[in-house]
Structure formats: C-alpha cells, structure tokens
Design a protein that fits this description.
heterodimer, A: about 280 residues, MetI-like fold, 2 domains, 13 helices, about 70% helix, B: mainly alpha, two-stranded antiparallel sheet, globular
C-alpha cells in the first residue's frame, strides 16, 4: 500500500494526534505528578505543573498509614489466583472444543458467553448469602472463586480462538505416529499454545485486578484488594490530593505497564473473537 | 478424524468448565427467583413467606423506579454516543501516518487500565472538586464561578467519567477494524476523485458497521452494570441512581431482599435482551 503523504500532512497529523493523546492521558499524568507534590503544592492556586519540589513523602505516608502492602498482596493473590485457577479449568475445555468439535460446541460456547452477561447486581444477595453460610465473606479464597467464575467465559473464549489457529495437520501427523492424547497435549499443543495462553493470562489478570463490584461488596477488612483500598479514600482522605494521588498511582502502575503489552489481546478477548 | 475415545475424553475435559459455569449461573439465579416471590427482610423478621408478584409490582410502582430507568438510559445512551462518535474520529486519526504512532496509541488506551474506583476518585476530587479541583482553577482563571460538578451537574459529570473510561475501548476496536480495510478500495475511490466525506460515508462507515455494533452491544452490557463510579462519587444521590444501584440499595442497604430480587430479575431480563443481539453476531462469526 504505502500511500504517499506529504510530510506537511504528516506533521499536522502528528501534532493533532499527540495533542489529543495527551489530553486523554492527562488525568493519569496529573495524578502521577501530584503524587510527588506536598499537600500544599497539590492544591496551590494556580496549579503547579512541573516546578514543584519533588518529594516521595506521600508514598511513605500511604505505605505506613494504610497497610498498603496487605491490599497490594490481596490484589495480587486474587487476580493471580483466579487467573491460574481459571486456566486450569479452561485449557482442557478450550482444547477439546477447538480440536474435537461436536455439533454442540457452538451452542456451549455461546451459552458460556451468556453467563458473562448476567448482571452481577441481579445475583448479589444469593452470592452474599452463600458466602456468609460458607464462611467465605471477606475471604481471599471466596473472591478468587468468584473472579475465576466471572472471567471463565472470557478465558475459554480467548483460548478457543487461539487454539483454533493451530493447524490440525500437525495433530494428525502426531496421531499417525502413535502419539497418545496425553503426549499430543504435552509435547505438541502446549508449546504452540503458550503465546495464546500468556496473552489470556495477561488480560484476565488485568480484568480481575480492576474488578470493582464483587471486590467492594464481598470484602471488609481481611480480603480487601486495592479497589476497596482506594474506595476508602472517598472521603475525607480524598481531599488530601497528594496522598490520594500516591495511593492511586501505586494501584494503577502495575496494570498500566501490563496493559501496554496486552493491547492486541484486549480486542480479541473483549469482543470474543468477533473483531480481529 | 476424532475417534470415539478422544470424543469421550473431550467431553471429560469440558466437564469442569461446564459444571462450574452451570452452577454459577443456576444456583444464584434460582435463589434470586425464589426470594423475589417472598417477603424477605433479613434484619426485620427474616423470611415471612410467599407474596406472589407483590415484589414485582412494588418495585415497578415505587417512586424511585422510573427515575432510575431514566437515569440508566441517559447514562448508557450518553456514553454510547460520546464513545462511538469520538471513537470513530480518533480511530480515523490514529490510522493516519504520523510520527510516534505507537506512543499516541498507548496514551489513548491508558484510561481503560485504570481501575474504576481510582478514575472515579481522581475525577471527583482532583478535577471536579468545587474548591481545589483543576476545573475550579480553570473556571476562576476565566472569571467564572466554579461549579459543584457532582451535585449541580451530576449526570453530565458521571457520563464524562464513564466515557473517559470507555473511549479507549471503542477507539481500539474501531482502529483494529479500520486497519483491516482494504486500502486499494480507498485508493481507487481517491483516484476517482471521491471527496473525503463521501469516502467516509460510502466506504469506511459501512466497513465499520459490524465493529460499531459490537462496541455498542458490549458497552451496553457493561454500562447497564456501572457501579463503582456511582458508589464513590455521588452514592446514588443527585439523580444518579441507576437501576443497578437502586437494586443494590434495596438489597444491601435497606435489606429488603424480596424487593431487590424482583428488581434483579428485571435487570437480568433487560441484560438478556441486549445479550441476544450480541450472541447472534458472535454466533454468525463462529460459523466461518
């Protein structure tokens, strides 16, 4: 293709796109900047953009005061645990649907997708009640299970679309050579499927990290992850802009970095393969 | 050439996922249905027996219901219009040749990765605070009186926050779709002297129609369930109580489980109507 474009046109595009990109990114940038200010500078009028005394004290105050490490640990355990558990359940399912499809495969896939559409608020009380009776309320194990279940359809779907891209001829050749089902999965499919599995893990980790309905409603003190920690800044601590910013920056930084790696997978994972 | 043995193995491998999801769907659903037909007040006497369709009638006839429906529709439609229109423009722009395209893409996509409670709080305090927020500074700079965004203009504020979160999603998907457009077709149109607008309406927009439909459907499902953004900003006050938020309040705040469950059944039906359309598109895509 390579449509020839005058460099003047390219310059205009560049300027325009960068301006809009920075405008959209600005709230995040502003949060990061504010986290390095003192409280007085954070609310100074007129606002200070760069010419302030950079300080790390907000970070140390937030860490000390709020037991930040525990919330972080909860987030990691819940997002990581649900992702791994989800993969253990989803890999065999997606594998069998991709390589041994039956007449019902399509229906099963669509049905799985439909469970994702169930509005959480519609089943809030039953889950709440079950959690109380099973002693899972405010427990990390409970949240790991719920996160795994709400993201399971996405994991199965993503894996399925990746697995379907693996050429069947290779499998057939292996079968001819007498490979057992176990060998087939272990030595042929797994190596070829690793990139797809990695992307699925990444996206699922991000979704679980940011989930803010169940994490807010099913936790109190022990199992609360970063979403709940930030919500506790709602008021009046939220008016301490510098500390709010430091806490927010710490909560979103890991995911922003992971997210940049997962742009492409995001489209596949969230449109269920309908847009490629 | 699946053998009988591999077929039954396949079924076995699928079983855990199917059983888990079936349980996850059916158990709470049946419980919600059960509660919705009972008078159930956990803090005021517990389960007081059958009540027929009373909860369904009361939920719909309560004075909070229609405003909540209206609020929900305004938020969903407002965010959809903003994100789809701006998303198309942004995708077109990002598709143009430029320097640093990768970096701009990252800047535009970033808000999607910010957890909802953070974006809601950052907007609420650092931008929309009537005293120290950045908007207040900006308004004062131009000699205007600062606005108490989340009380005086609560709905536009919420729509803004949610749109900021979802614009990256729409942009990313529409950009992916634009990039799959056959550029020869566009070039041919360009050679024939078709002006920009015509090329957009006759070639690009039809090509995007499927991606736009998918963006609308997926976003609608998520937007119907917007929760954290309202929870940490207005708490449902100032006319921002959506249907989901109303149900949440009935169930957990006023502990009227029967009434809330009836509301939940309405929400499930509503989401399913949207879901049917989405599944049709996805299902068609599976066939090829």
């Amino acid at each position: 293709m390579a449509r020839s474009v005058s460099s003047r046109r390219k310059l205009i595009n560049t300027g325009f796109a960068w301006a809009i990109g920075l405008l959209i990114f600005f709230p995040i940038l502003w949060t990061i900047l504010t986290s390095f200010k003192t409280e007085a500078q954070a609310i100074a009028s007129p606002p200070i953009f760069l010419g302030f005394d950079w300080t790390l004290e907000n970070y140390s105050i937030v860490m000390e005061r709020s037991n930040y490490a525990r919330f972080l640990w909860n987030s990691i355990l819940i997002a990581g645990g649900s992702t791994i558990l989800g993969l253990i359940v989803a890999v065999p399912a997606a594998w069998s649907m991709a390589f041994v499809p039956s007449r019902r495969t399509k229906d099963i896939l669509l049905w799985m997708l439909s469970t994702k559409m169930l509005p959480a608020v519609g089943v809030l009380y039953p889950i709440y009640l079950l959690f109380i009776q099973l002693g899972l309320l405010d427990s990390r194990a409970g949240l790991v299970i719920v996160m795994m279940l709400i993201n399971l359809p996405i994991i199965v779907w993503m894996l399925y679309t990746y697995f379907r891209e693996i050429p069947v001829e290779i499998l057939e050749a292996a079968r001819m050579d007498g490979a057992t089902l176990r060998e087939e999965v272990l030595y042929i499919l797994t190596p070829m499927a690793i990139p797809g599995i990695a992307s699925t893990m990444l996206l699922n980790f991000i979704l679980a990290w940011n989930e803010a309905f169940w994490t807010l409603n099913l936790t109190a003190v022990n199992a609360a992850p970063l979403t709940a920690f930030i919500a506790s800044y709602s008021s009046p601590e939220g008016l301490f802009f510098a500390k709010l910013s430091a806490a927010s920056t710490m909560a979103i930084a890991p995911i922003l970095i992971l997210g940049w790696f997962s742009q492409k997978q995001l489209v596949r994972g969230l449109t269920f393969g309908a847009v490629k | 050439m699946a053998t009988k043995a591999s077929r039954s193995a396949a079924r076995l491998m699928m079983a855990p996922a199917v059983v888990l999801l079936l349980g996850w769907m059916l158990v709470p659903l049946i419980m919600t249905l059960w509660f919705s037909f009972r008078t159930y007040l956990p803090l005021r006497g517990g389960d007081k027996g059958w009540t027929g369709f009373d909860n369904y009638v009361r939920f719909v006839t309560s004075s909070a219901f229609w405003p909540a429906v209206q609020t929900t529709l305004i938020i969903v439609l407002g965010v959809l219009v903003i994100t789809v229109c701006l998303g198309i423009l942004l995708a077109l722009l990002l598709d143009q040749p430029m320097w640093g395209q990768g970096v701009v893409r990252i800047l535009v996509i970033a808000p999607f990765f910010v957890m909802p409670t953070v974006s809601a709080l950052v907007w609420k305090n650092m931008f929309m605070d009537p005293v120290n927020g950045l908007f207040a500074h900006l308004w004062r700079f131009f000699g205007a009186d600062p606005v108490s965004w989340l009380s005086d203009a609560a709905m536009p504020s919420i729509i803004m926050i949610v749109s900021w979160q979802w614009l990256p999603f729409a942009t990313l998907i529409l950009l992916t779709a634009i990039q799959s457009l056959d550029s020869e077709q566009l070039e041919a149109a360009e050679m024939d002297g078709a002006p920009h607008l015509k090329r957009f309406f006759y070639i690009i927009l039809p090509h995007l129609s499927r991606a736009i439909t998918i963006v609308i459907l997926i976003q609608t499902i998520f937007l119907l369930a917007v929760f954290a953004e309202i929870f940490v900003t207005t708490g449902g006050a100032f006319g921002t109580r959506t249907l989901s938020y109303l149900i949440f309040q009935r169930v957990l705040e006023s502990q009227n489980v029967g009434l809330g469950s009836a509301g939940g059944v309405y929400a499930i039906i509503l989401a399913n109507i949207v879901a049917i359309f989405l599944m049709r598109i996805v299902g068609k895509n599976l066939d090829n």
